[in-house]
Amino acid sequence: MHQSDVVIVGAGMQGATMALAAARAGLRPLVVERGKVGSGATGNSYGIIHGGLRYLQSLSVGRWQRSRQAQAWFLDNYPEHVRPLACAMPLYRHTLRSPMAFRAASAIESCLYRGTGLSRRLPRLQLLGSEEIARAYPLPRRDLAGAALWHDLVADDMETLLRKILADAGASGAALMEDTEAGELIVADNRVVGLNVTHADGSAEEIATPRVAICAGSWSSRWPQEPKAATTATLAFNLVLDIPFPGDAALAVSETPGKGRSYFLRPLEGGTFAGTFYRPAPGAREPDVTPADIAAFLEVLDRALPGYGIAEAGVRAVMPGLLPDTDGTGRTLSAADTISTPGPAGLSQVLGSKLTTAPLLSMDAARRLWPQEARRAA
Ligand SMILES: Cc1cc2nc3c(=O)[nH]c(=O)nc-3n(C[C@H](O)[C@H](O)[C@H](O)COP(=O)(O)OP(=O)(O)OC[C@H]3O[C@@H](n4cnc5c(N)ncnc54)[C@H](O)[C@@H]3O)c2cc1C
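Predict the joint structure of the above. Result:
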């Protein structure tokens, strides 16, 4: 029988960074993953580690700061697995995405850097002229007033990044079991004493452990949850299209110029990586994308970038995931990061809204859940 100080369920960004945080708190974690490392939302994500520029529109200073801290964490700890990605967004007169709005965002960001003492790690926001952006991409020209250019980080090979994080956790005592599905908790006197797991060959095993941390993303509701826990009800997916994309940058476009949800397009292995399309999926257990979903996304992209041939492009790959929403209807994505202890004692759930901020959430969770161990290890 395996024994472990803490079993972490799920090897996405949350589980991998939780393993690192637990190992650094002096625990010897065992990560149990039902598929392969990164096979959930993390491996199917768009791979961007956001800098939080979008949060400046609503003056959500705390979220901006957390995103910048998360970018710094990846740059400091995994510089060889992330790279700056230039992102361009066309700006249109008389809309919220106008040159004036972006100049204001740039000024606010400069003040925030000074106010928070965070150091700028990526180039500052720039404005491009309308001719320059129109030469690069076949954009709708009416009221086009230029483009904003900023840099985020991107992880091109998410699985390798996750395996490196897990290897670092392994150097401090963590272990990984892939192709192993976590099942029922084993509980005595309202305390966790173990976890049942099933291996890919059908064999079952009990792992003796006093702590289980659920980092199973949209599959977390299988275990006891706090009544107010986020519900996963939104389907999200990216497409890899069989059509080359110009340049190296990502381009953010929207169905109506200057308004509404932004979709990103960037080059990927000679094709175009397009993301992210969302639709409500209340009660869904698996991220099932239908041909109608794909057609709807292609239509949106075709309207956003007419004349680029997207409607006729072949689809090389569909990359789906389920995400938490705010009220179970699937209409509004949750932006909350939650650490909950629904009971029995020793059970915790760590559910984040973005892979970007998963490492910070894991460090907070380790401090909150295992303060004595963390203090002893410090
Ligand atoms: C299409 C899409 C695009 C996105 N793009 C971005 C982006 O660009 N930037 C960003 O910051 N965020 C993005 N996100 C959000 C981000 O991917 C998620 O918030 C984050 O990856 C969630 O990580 P996680 O580890 O909690 O979940 P997951 O990555 O889903 O990991 C959960 C793991 O648990 C495993 N598991 C489930 N049940 C069991 C079980 N019973 N036993 C063992 N293992 C189990 C699963 O196999 C899975 O590997 C995107 C999401 C999607 C779906």
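The first strand starts at residue 6 and ends at 9.
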